[in-house]
Each structure stands twice: as C-alpha cells, then as structure tokens.
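Morning, I've got a small favour to ask if you have a moment. You're getting the sequence in one-letter code plus the fold written as tokens. Thanks so much in advance, here it is:

===
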Amino acid sequence: MTDTIESLERRMNLAAQSLDFEEAQRLRDRIALMRGGASAAEAERAATSGLVRQKPGSMGLGTSRQRVTPPTDWRPPAKPDPMTANHGRPSRRS
C-alpha cells in the first residue's frame, strides 16, 4: 500500500507526540522526497539517514555570499602616492 503525504504527515505527528523522534524524522524525510518528485515506493526504499538539510542562503539567495578568488598571478595595483594625489587637476570650487 502506498502512503499519501497526508497520511505520512499524520503518522509523523503521532510519532512526535509519542516522543518517537527517530520515526518522525524518517517520515519527514519520506515526505520531503515525495514532495521533491519521488514516488511513494521510491521514497520508502530510499535510505534517508544520510540526508543533510540545506543551510540558509547556500544557493546565493540571502545570507551567504560567495567569495571571488583572483587568478594566481594577479597582483593588486600600486597605491597612489598621497603627496601627489589630486595635483594637476583644476579645482572645481566656485
């Protein structure tokens, strides 16, 4: 018999109320697989013990930012001399 998402949610809530959190976790993972497109039979056969929840922002939306790594031969440009900065430009003050 294949379970529907609603029946799995009911079983998950009952397991959580009876403090059987391991069973509730297995049911939660089966629900997630079924919502992701797996059939009920595939979700039942899947080994869900190694599943890891995605961290917030890991797809670049939100909190995490990806660091750009420069090429290995890149050198930062030389800093301008502070004694000669802005010399030779006409002043725009009125």
About this structure: The radius of gyration is 29 Å. The longest helix spans residues 21-35. The chain has a mean pLDDT of 76. The CA atoms of residues 3 and 17 lie 20 Å apart.
